[in-house]
Amino acid sequence: MPKRVDFLVVGSGIAGLTFATKVAHLGETLILTKKRKADTNTNYAQGGIAAVFGKDDSFKNHIKDTLMVGEGLCHCKAVEIMVKQGPRLVKELHDMGCRFSTSNGKTFDLGKEGGHSQRRIVHAKDFTGWEIERILLEEAKKEGVTISENEIVLDLIIQHEKCIGIYYFEADTQKINTLFANVTVLATGGAGQVYLHTTNPSIATGDGIAMAYRAGAKIANMEFVQFHPTAVYNIKIEGRSFLISEAVRGEGGVLKTKDGVPFMHKYSHSGNLAPRDVVARACVSEMLKTEAKYVLLDISHRRAAFIKKRFPTIYETCLRWGIDVTREPIPVVPTAHYLCGGILVNTWGESSIPRLFALGECACTGVHGANRLASNSLLEALVFATRASQKIKSVKSMKIHKHFKMKKAAARIGPNFKLAIKELMHQYCGVIKTEYGLEEAKHSIDRYSQQFDDGIHLINAESRNITDVAKLIIESALLRKESRGLHYIQEYPHKNKKFLKDTIVKKEQ
Ligand SMILES: Cc1cc2nc3c(=O)[nH]c(=O)nc-3n(C[C@H](O)[C@H](O)[C@H](O)COP(=O)(O)OP(=O)(O)OC[C@H]3O[C@@H](n4cnc5c(N)ncnc54)[C@H](O)[C@@H]3O)c2cc1C
Questions:
Q1: Distance 84 CA to ligand 1 centre (A)
Q2: Do the interacting molecules here have an ipTM over 0.95?
Q3: Which of 71, 85, 98, 205 falls 20 to 30 Å from 302 in CA-CA distance?
Q4: Half-sphere exposure (CA, 13 Å, Cβ side) for 415?
Q5: Which residues pair with 137 in a beta bridge?
Q6: Is 4 a catalytic residue?
Q7: Which domains does the chain have, with CATH numbers?
Q8: What is the pLDDT of residues 261-282, one digit of tens each?
Q9: Where is the FAD-dependent oxidoreductase 2 FAD-binding domain (predicted)?
């Protein structure tokens, strides 16, 4: 392993791979990833990537839909950039060989999802993320990007308030080591694993956000956690709940109570295609009313041949669990899915710490505001990773001061609080929160976080990261005394203009 590279990227999902493939010709580019290359959230994205291609669609429409769902907190400039630069980059993926579904082999077969006024979801059947990951890994190889697997990045190295590299656990030597870089990029994905039930794979423990927070970066809008309304009830694959894509409702799927009564018309004039926060709250309300552990999602009225062709993964996976979606409804529950907040960055992906960039789900560009419009996250990662690759041309080469002293390993091994915190977040920080519950959660999380010493933690590093991220979510939720978008708190059920701003937190150094 080199001691120093030009561009160091942490994470091999859409954000990390896009950035790396675009800068590899400018200097030595290394991706470190904590499991195997394709162990990413990206790999599991089903629905697709939103971009304006439809003949009745326009940038104006996509911007309007994004702002509407974001409920006043979207950064308008970032939204405009994402929407306008998106189609060219989606087309670029297609030109690389990404096999997006097309009608008659020519134009993209555009799907429709909740909150979108038009059909604009470019997809590869229902395994879009897998296909994007595949093509970007191929491209990275062609461009000469080195990807090193099973390397766990533990903390950032900050010198004179700049990020100059990372501490990591080196797979080869089985030691904690340092790696210096001109530019360090966090592309570590989401934090669904902070919750008991999540659609996110096991890598999604919010490591990048926790590391950036500990290093003194600004972290924004952590209270906005998106719960996907329709994950299959009580069935998990490697700790991850199986998601039934929003596109199923886009193609006519209907949510019903356990007794088979449709209910979404009572909650929104958009019915089953209402934005995710509305649908998730409606599902929880109906579950409480009927004392049921799940609601039903029914697409069995569509032709079996259509379902099998349009949703092959969903059809086959459910069938393996004994649910034939062509003949019967699927039991579903809302599940932690996506984090709108993260490391605060500008429209070039730069964080508040010089030489540290953050891209993809671990970043907060502000495009999602208080709620993410479906299929805007792959797009966000693609657009801002590309912009960051353009920006780094102006980053000058860095000197490492001779008196640099490596931080010590923590004196005590941190405890493993993973399960306790997941249960805490499930109980107090779900779709519907209360101030009392959040206070209880804060009390517990403060006790947990006091158990971790300063210094580099290897054993239970994820437990420490989960603790930091849970603390950020709870504290940010307590600061926002209103309900807006994904943040619903019973004591303050309405929006309040006073809170028409980002929640920004920063650790005093
Ligand atoms: C089931 C599911 C379906 C989804 N469907 C859609 C969809 O249809 N459309 C859409 O737009 N979005 C969708 N999303 C969201 C979208 O997939 C993610 O937001 C996006 O893929 C995030 O990409 P990323 O590159 O930021 O992170 P990821 O793809 O999650 O990659 C993170 C990388 O960081 C690495 N990493 C993390 N911590 C460390 C560490 N400490 N050291 C080293 N490496 C580390 C991981 O190993 C991984 O390689 C979906 C998400 C899920 C889970």
A1: 23
A2: yes
A3: 98
A4: 9
A5: none
A6: no
A7: 4-191+340-394 (3.50.50.60), 232-335 (3.90.700.10)
A8: 999 999 999 999 988 889 999 9
A9: 6-378
